[in-house]
Amino acid sequence: MSGGSGIVILGIFAADTAYTAKRMPHIAETLLGSDFKLGPGGKGSNQAIAAAKAGGKVTFISRIGNDPFGEMALSAYASAGVKANVMRMDGVSTGAAFIFVNEDNGDNAIIVAPGAAGLIGIEDVDANRAEIENAAIFMTQLEQPLDAATHALGIARRAGVTTVFNPAPAQTVPDEIYALCDYVVPNEVEVAHIVGHPVETDEQARAAGDILLQKGTGCAIITLGARGALYHAPGRSELIPAFSAGKVVDTTGAGDAFLGGFAAALSQGQEPAAAVRFGCATAAIAVTRPGTAPAMPLRSEIDDLLRLGS
C-alpha cells in the first residue's frame, strides 16, 4: 500500500429517478405506481458518499452537466464530506437513472444514461494523477468508459496504491484489467457474466472466485445478497454472513454501500476479511431505507450494528 490514507474513486454521478410499483410495465402499457423519489445516484458517486459517511477521506473524480441535476451532485458531496474533483460541462446533461423498485420485496431494475460522465476520458485521470498516486485506495467501476478505468487502475497499481475494481454493470472486459486489481468485487450476476456459469451456490461462488484469481486479481470478493459475501483469496476462502438491520425496503444501493464501507475500513487499516464484514454491515443498514446515496449509513450506525452482531 502507498503511504496515503485517502480513498480516490473514479465513476459517474446519475440522478436517480425511482418509481415503486407492483411490476414493470409492458410495452405500450401505463401502470400506476405507488411512490416516486428523486435523489443522487450513480455507482461511483454512491460509493464515494458511502465511504465518506463510513469514515473515509474521499475524493471523487467525474463529470457532470451544468444543470439542476449537477447542482444536486455537488450538494450531496458537500453534505457527505466528499472532495469533488468534478468537471462541469455546458450543453451536456448530467447522468440520470430510471429505477424500478418492486413494492413487495424491494428488488430493482435500472437503466442508466451517463450523460456528461459518459465523456470521462484518460485526460480526466491524468488531471488527477497526483491524487490517485497519493491515495491508500483507488476504486472504480464500469459505468464510465473502460479506457479511463483501466488507465487509472494502472496509475494506482504502479504507485503501490491498493486497487478495488467493481465490474458493474456487467460487460466483457479484457483479462489484462484483472492483473491491475488487488480486489475485484462483483455481485452474483456480474461474476456469472465474467466466468460463464451461474453463481447460485457457495460452491459456484468459490469456483468463480478461483477463475478471478487465475485471471490475475489478488483477491475476489463476491457479494451474495442476503447470504452475505465470499472473501476468496489465495489460501483463504471465507463466507462472511449478511447482517440484519430491519425490514428490507430497497436493495438498489446495496452493492455500493458494501463497497463504500469496505473501502473505508480498508483505508483505515482493517484486515481484508474484517473490511468485508464492515461492508456487509454498511449494506445491511442501507437496504432498510429508500434510495441510494441518501440511504448510506453513518460510521456510528455501522459500529453499533457490528457490536450487536459480534
UniProtKB/TrEMBL annotation:
Catalytic activity from the UniProt record: D-ribose + ATP = D-ribose 5-phosphate + ADP + H(+)
Binding residue positions for K(+): D250, T252, A286, R289, G291
UniProt keyword annotation of Glycoprotein present: no
Gene Ontology CC entries for this record: cytosol
Stored SUPFAM superfamilies: Ribokinase-like (SSF53613)
Keyword match Kinase: yes
Reported cofactor(s): Mg(2+)
A GO biological-process term: D-ribose catabolic process
Class of this enzyme: transferase
Residues annotated for ATP binding in this entry: N187, T223, L224, G225, A226, R227, G228, G255, D256
Localization in the cell: Cytoplasm
Record-listed substrate binding positions: A14, A15, D16, G42, K43, G44, S45, N46, E143, D256
Stated family: Belongs to the carbohydrate kinase pfkB family.
Official protein name in the record: Ribokinase
Organism: Sinorhizobium saheli
Lineage: Bacteria, Pseudomonadati, Pseudomonadota, Alphaproteobacteria, Hyphomicrobiales
